[in-house]
Amino acid sequence: MSTDTVDTDGGGSDPAIEVTTDAAAEALSLLEGEGLDTDEAGLRLFVQQGGCAGLSYGMRFDTKPEDDDLVVEHHGLRVFVDPASQNYIGGSTLDYEHGLQAAGFEVENPNIVSECGCGESFRT
After folding, report:
1. Gap between the Cα atoms of 105 and 83, Å rounded
2. Phi/psi at 5 (nearest 5 deg)?
3. All domains of the chain, ordered by start, with CATH?
4. Is the pLDDT of residue 119 over 80?
5. pTM of the model
6. What is the C-alpha to C-alpha distance for residues 102 and 74, in angstroms, rounded to an integer?
7. Going by C-beta distance under 8 Å and a sequence separation of 6 or more, which residues neighbour residue 99?
8. H/E/C letters for each residue in the chain?
9. How far apart are CA 52 and CA 116, in angstroms?
10. Coil, helix or strand at residue 59
11. How far is 39 from 76, CA to CA, in rounded Å?
């Protein structure tokens, strides 16, 4: 299978995930800080088993997508999503929150039917 790339900067819509300007800027800064080529490397967003509600998000930097990944581009950031995770995060938005007590990436997922009390895991 070949990697599918969706470029959303041109006004198209993306079936898997949206990325805010703040999230893209923060991720690109971190990628560059790691010495990774932002033309090839990207942020991998995935869903894994875990947490009290059953599922949790994972994120890491990858140097390139896997062959069966959906690759979306927002504001210059490449995001890699594996096929299994696409089922759980379709329609989600990745944002970066700046707060007094904490800052970090946040996934706003319309598919969630319940979350645990701490907000770290979810169920669809």
Report:
1. 21
2. -115, 135
3. 4-123 (2.60.300.12)
4. no
5. 0.78
6. 24
7. none
8. CCCEEEECCCCCCCCCEEECHHHHHHHHHHHHHCCCCCCCCEEEEEEEECCCCCEEEEEEEECCCCCCCEEEEECCEEEEECHHHHHHHCCEEEEEEECCCCEEEEEECCCCCEECCCCCCEEC
9. 6
10. strand
11. 8
Query: Do residues 105 and 99 make contact, with C-beta atoms less than 8 angstroms apart?
Result: no
| pLDDT > 70 fraction of the chain, expressed in percent and rounded | 73
Per residue in 6-18, pLDDT tens? Answer: 544 433 344 568 9
**Encoded tokens for 120:** 């770290």
Residue whose tokens read 């970066």 = 96
Collapsed DSSP state (helix, strand, coil) of residue 5: strand
- Cα Dmax for the chain: 45
Contacts of 35 (CB under 8 A, 6+ apart): none
The three-state DSSP-derived secondary structure of 72-86 is EEECCEEEEECHHHH
Contact status, residue 81 vs residue 59, Cβ threshold 8 Å = no
Tokens at 26, concatenated: 């923060």
Place of tokens 């770290």: 120
